[in-house]
Amino acid sequence: NKSSSSAGGGGGDIKIGLSVSTLNNPYFVQLRQGAEAEAKKEGVKITVTDAQNDASQQVNQVQNFVSQSMKAIIINPVDSSAAAPAVKAADRSKIPVIAADRGVTGADAAQTVASDNVAGGKLAAQELGKALGGKGKVAVLQGTAGTSAARDRQQGFAEGIKAFPGIQVVAQQPADFDRTKGLDVMTNLLQAHSDITGVFAANDEMALGAIKALGGKAGKQVKVVGFDGTPDGLKAIQAGTLSADVAQQPVLLGQLAVQSAVKAAKGGKIEATVAVPVKVATKDNVAQFTNGA
Amino acid sequence: MTEEILRVRGLRKRFPGVVALDGVDFDLRPGEVHVLLGENGAGKSTLIKMLSGAYHPDEGTIFVDGRETTIRTAEDAQRLGIATIYQEFNLVPQLTVAENLMLGRPPRRFGFVDKKAMYARAQEMLDRVGVDADPRAPLESLGIARMQMVEIAKALGLDARVLIMDEPTAVLTTSEVERLFTIVRQLKEQGVAIVFITHHLEEIAQIGDRVTVLRDGASVAEVPADTPEDELVRLMVGRSIDQQYPRERSTQGAPLLEVRGLTRTGVFEDVSFEVRAGEVVGLAGLVGAGRTEVVRAIFGADHYDSGEVLVDGRRLPRGNVTAAMEAGLGLVPEDRKGQGLVLGADIRENLGLVTMRHATHAGFVDRAGQTKAAARVAEQLGVRMSGLTQEVRTLSGGNQQKIVIGKWLLAEAKVLILDEPTRGIDVGAKVEIYQLINSLTAAGHAVLMISSDLPEVLGMSDRVLVMARGRLAGELSAAEATQDSVMALAVGELEETA
Amino acid sequence: MTTGVLRLRKGGSVLSENGSLIGLIVLVVALTLLSGDFLTVTNLLNVGVQAAVTAILAFGQTYVIISAGIDLSVGAVAALSAVVLAWTATSNGMPWPLATGFALLVGIACGLVNGALITYGKLPPFIATLAMQGVARGLGLVISQGSPIALPDSVSHLGDTIGSYLPVPVIVMLVMGVITAVVLNRTYAGRAMYAIGGNEEAARLSGIKVTRQKLITYALAGGFAAVAGIVLASRLASAQPQAALGYELDAIAAVVIGGASLSGGKGKALGTFVGALILAVLRNGLNLLSVSAFWQQVVIGVVIALAVLLDTLRRRQAR
Amino acid sequence: MTTGVLRLRKGGSVLSENGSLIGLIVLVVALTLLSGDFLTVTNLLNVGVQAAVTAILAFGQTYVIISAGIDLSVGAVAALSAVVLAWTATSNGMPWPLATGFALLVGIACGLVNGALITYGKLPPFIATLAMQGVARGLGLVISQGSPIALPDSVSHLGDTIGSYLPVPVIVMLVMGVITAVVLNRTYAGRAMYAIGGNEEAARLSGIKVTRQKLITYALAGGFAAVAGIVLASRLASAQPQAALGYELDAIAAVVIGGASLSGGKGKALGTFVGALILAVLRNGLNLLSVSAFWQQVVIGVVIALAVLLDTLRRRQAR
Ligand SMILES: Nc1ncnc2c1ncn2[C@@H]1O[C@H](COP(=O)(O)OP(=O)(O)OP(=O)(O)O)[C@@H](O)[C@H]1O
Ligand SMILES: Nc1ncnc2c1ncn2[C@@H]1O[C@H](COP(=O)(O)OP(=O)(O)OP(=O)(O)O)[C@@H](O)[C@H]1O
Ligand SMILES: [Mg+2]
Ligand SMILES: [Mg+2]
């Protein structure tokens, strides 16, 4: 077997597999980095695959992990319910499965390491409400229609914003988690709603696109709240163009998932859920995020 | 006489920019061969396409068995018992010969295509027209002549009451033509009515009963088939032509094209000859003799295994068309649709294709100059068109052929190779082309001409090479060459003829 | 000469008639050497399951490509059919055989609309089916409200195995493949597809009802897409509005790798099957070899090119 | 008759020669009526900026499609070029004009590889460029480590405006469009593309060096993709490895909407421009009208079909 072996210390011949929902997004790239760094530290071999946001490709990858007799599998589900058959298959082969970032519904993962997207959405609403002083007109940039992240963040935001009767959501449009689309869609929305004072973008990529579209207004007349806490997002906070960012600590998430996977692979007992705290990065506390990552 | 099976009155059809048919009357009786005659673009193909359901008339009526009928689709025509052999093949190159023969009506058993029955039936159909081809072979592996025979066999397979043949003999050699005529005579006896289009006037008396002459989209005369050729020509082109083959011999110079021991295993072997400046050399032979293959190899369009080709004393690299062209070779290919024309492009574009390289300066094409040159050649060849921007696809068959020749005339090649150059061209235009050949040789160029039209080979060549089964069977001077001597070489078993 | 051993009957060989089979064989041999996990029964069955959806879509696509068309909507139609199945079977309590039939009808209807746009509307197939892609994908989202719908157990058994080994998706794939081979080789519709793709005008003038045959062609592609969607959903036990995103490219690639030409008139069921297997084996192998995620795309690209290159080189040698 | 007003010179009109222009006009009129915000100078400039990347990709694609090919790699090549630009200009401190030139060369090199695979390797264009898509996308990810790379300010000015109004991307788009029109109409290479796309064998027998011309064609497409990538990155002030994902389909759609045929020999720069504008106007309009996310795809699909349908209907009436 020629694949690069990062073997070292005590892990010996432990192989674990990680199926990431997509690497088309810096958030998950960071998750992977955290996982790989932790694996190196523990001295286990980790195989990372990219499901390219395709639930069935993810099932394929988990099946392949089973074929390779991985000792533990970490799945970062493309979709919570669609991951069930894959988890069941691994369960049949007695391979522990750790769900990372999103839970699995319809099957039992050994552990779910997640920060809650719905809760994050609510937090974002609170932050935006605070930044706007409880009133104003808000536009929402939605994620790719039909994906669970888009759905959950949207849901959380909608619930959270109800607490601010003075805030009116004047437009919701999809920008597919993409920076270019974020830029184009925001530009277009500004044409129809030039009086927007707040923007919630369901991820940092779209938030950064929106900031580009807002130009000098970003952070001043228009407050933008993002989601994910990617390096570029945190930089925007420092620059003052992004008012708040719901940071999910993907690196930590990846690290914790690998720790649990190694423990489970060695036959140890692990908790059913580990909640990775969702934090809000603002100009005041951004330094602690940038140091951590 | 017997009652008419088909009667056409006042048929009109216009295309953007052209009135193709302008009031045509025509009728057809069972058991007769009715010849349609007319210049290129006179409207012959358009007329028959309206009888076969390919086009719809703008005006006018069609009566079948005395009843007014509209023929909307090819199926309607088939139901009425009308079968058509189109001028441009309507075959599917990727499919097998058998499937082409039964295109759209394969034999079926329990709802599934019965391949065994299909191949058996195909063999019968091929045998009927006497063509040697494997029913299982893909059609594209056949030469153009055998494709024509397949097209004929396909139409005969419909057992129709009316058989329309649009220039079926254009690509056939004498022996195939004779076989076709035998079949036509049998059909006549069975009472089949036949519409026959040809530009070979001598065939009219051989096979025809009546002739309808079309001019500029209108029927101008209906005469018996034994009308003298001169008279037919006069009716057709509006003037008489005194000499069919106006070859003017010019003085011969040094050899411009030398071919030595050219061989491609299994196709042609040890072909050696030369063509001198000022000379027209005819290349005769039966279909499948390998003439096309030889000239394509000379021109660099195909590879060869051994031998060499020299132009003006310099050796050509193998399989390199551009090098051959730069050395002064030109080739008018036999298959105009497949190899000669960009059908979707306009006349100007096609005429300028070969000379485009020379009309290019610093990467930019001199489009104005090209247009002028194209206009000149189109005028010279009498191309019937609505303008230089007409799509070549919509030209009549003969006019398309003129474009293929025209683009090479513009190139002023030192040695021009013509493969069946006058296929489908009317008598008037043929004479134009012959005169152009004369002026080429007079200017010191050379011409190598393949033709299955023996009178043309005999009438225009200074020297005749005859090929049989991939070899040069012999060479005849203009004086020695006659129908009989050429045919003897073409068919004969490599016998020596001095 | 080189392929002499595999020559089965005079004048033709399975190899020379089926494009990239040699590419697939080389790939399988290479992976067997590189990874001990590859050539095991379970893994090969996994490959079969993983190939199933693409292969079924590709079989449908084969009809379209042979008749010189293209269908960009198959992925979206698969997703729509799956959503319709789940929606009717759960929210509306339709018994599953009825719901499955209904989902199939939805696929066929999408195909018929494609066909109608192309024949009556004279739209280029690329545009008509691109439009349908958007419409089908959008309708899937609208019906499902953007959320996956869980499938009732009755249906999701379709994604399971018969006994403990034989996966149903593999069986469905093989059945659809055989159907495709028979349709293409033995039925009037199939032969008409080749004729239309090879020379539409000739087909028309030979009395083939081109409009009707094209409608049949696209309807078949739509029906096959529906089957693929049902298999996909039952594997995941849920119907996802965003499932099979981009699968149309994989399906077209499988058909072309299998030796068909986008200009029509050529193509075979077996070739398509080989093409789909190449793609599935490749993805499976890269996972087994733990190729890094970023390099995977590079490797997939290179191997696809090599697999098809092998075929063209062999063909040139044969001449 | 119906188009009499727009007839500019005898025998031809801008409308009848440029496919879907009428579709675009109808779309613009409809949007103007539906939304007061649509027909403003700023918004139209926005549409221009948003069309720019697709249009530039589509101009490059036009060459390929006219010569009867297809290039699925343009989106990925655009992203790769952008990443290379950002990487050389930041990590390696190359001065920006050099870095830009280098990024351009990368695009052209990708195109040449496509061309070589197609001509020397005899791969179908679909397969060759699909392989390149994977390779270019993968290399972009490898170079950037999957994360966006910020562009130095010197380069990102390319995404700004000249003065306070004139956006550079629009200017670049127009320049590339004019180049395309000139190349196609006036140069040897352009005319050769039409001939090769119309009948490759006839082109070869007329002395056109088909291999060389195809290499030029794909190299142009690659170069244009690089330009598109640079414009895209400078608009965002950052190069994203996953930028322009799926843009190849938009580019092909723009070319086909503009009246080109995937079977080659037909196509125009102006048509492609109109096609790209239709797509951009459509997306802009949907945002302005606040159409719900789920319905957007449906509407895009329907409107594309209608826009092209209008053209075919008009053509049929003219006859
Ligand atoms: N589809 C079309 N569109 C435009 N013009 C057409 C079309 N088909 C035929 N024409 C024109 O109609 C005229 C008659 O063409 P037709 O093919 O009937 O001539 P023909 O008598 O068969 O000539 P030939 O002897 O060269 O075959 C020509 O001028 C031709 O250019
Ligand atoms: N009647 C036939 N029987 C067997 N083989 C044939 C026959 N006709 C043609 N072929 C084969 O098909 C090939 C191409 O046929 P085609 O008719 O183009 O021959 P050709 O030599 O070009 O004809 P021509 O001499 O008329 O130009 C020939 O090389 C020959 O081997
Ligand atoms: Mg004719
Ligand atoms: Mg010949």
Automatic annotation (TrEMBL), chain B:
Keywords, alphabetical: ATP-binding, Nucleotide-binding, Repeat, Transport
GO MF term list: ATP binding
Top-level taxon: Bacteria
InterPro entries in the cross-refs: AAA+_ATPase, ABC_carbohydrate_import_ATPase, ABC_transporter-like_ATP-bd, ABC_transporter-like_CS, P-loop_NTPase
Residue ranges occupied by any ABC transporter domain in the UniProt entry: 6-241, 251-494
SMART domains associated with the record: AAA
Pfam families the UniProt entry points to: ABC_tran
PANTHER family xref list: CARBOHYDRATE TRANSPORT ATP-BINDING PROTEIN MG119-RELATED, GALACTOFURANOSE TRANSPORTER ATP-BINDING PROTEIN YTFR
Protein name per its UniProtKB record: Sugar ABC transporter ATP-binding protein
SUPFAM superfamilies given in the database record: P-loop containing nucleoside triphosphate hydrolases
TrEMBL record, chains C, D:
Domain of life according to the entry: Bacteria
Record has Membrane as a keyword: yes
Principal cellular location given in the protein's record: membrane
InterPro entries, per database record: ABC_transp_permease
This protein's record includes keyword Plastid: no
Keywords from the UniProt entry: Cell membrane, Membrane, Transmembrane, Transmembrane helix
Transmembrane segments: 21-41, 72-90, 96-119, 164-184, 215-237, 294-313
Membrane topology category: Multi-pass membrane protein
Record localization: Cell membrane
Protein name: Sugar ABC transporter permease
Organism: Actinoallomurus vinaceus
